[in-house]
Specification:
Blueprint (H helix, E strand, L loop, with lengths): L1 E2 L7 E3 L1 H5 L3 H7 L1 E4 L2 E3 L5 E3 L2 E7 L4 E10 L2 E10 L2 H22 L1
Parallel strand pairs: 2-3
Antiparallel strand pairs: 1-8, 3-6, 4-5, 6-7, 7-8
């Protein structure tokens, strides 16, 4: 189990922002992670059970789907590597949509 930390070289975005990410933006930012919270209809932050990461490494692009167990503790549920950003971003977007759908259905 790991504990959440914020790093200076990562960009934190909402799930909605991640859905609009383009490959060239991922290349420039190099490491993007989603928030652990999502603003609800009342303008308050609700906890989201998962967060995602996409990171450009020397020879691949790594994406992770992490589940928060007991904030700030989390586990990695799924990790994939891809040879290019385009392939990684397609699955990253799919995971973000799944989480948004799940959070929407829980309300």
């Amino acid at each position: 189990m790991k504990s959440l930390h914020y790093y200076g070289n990562e960009t934190i975005m909402s799930l909605e922002q991640v859905l609009r990410l383009r490959p060239n933006e991922v290349r420039i930012l190099e490491w993007v992670r989603t928030y652990e919270f999502l603003e609800n209809q009342y303008g308050l932050d609700d906890a989201v059970p998962h967060f995602l990461e996409i990171k450009c490494e020397a020879d691949a692009v790594r994406i992770r789907r992490n589940r928060i167990t007991d904030f700030p503790e989390y586990i990695c549920e799924e990790e994939k590597t891809f040879p290019d950003v385009e392939q990684a971003l397609a699955l990253f977007h799919e995971w973000a949509k799944q989480i948004l759908d799940q959070v929407g259905n829980d309300k």
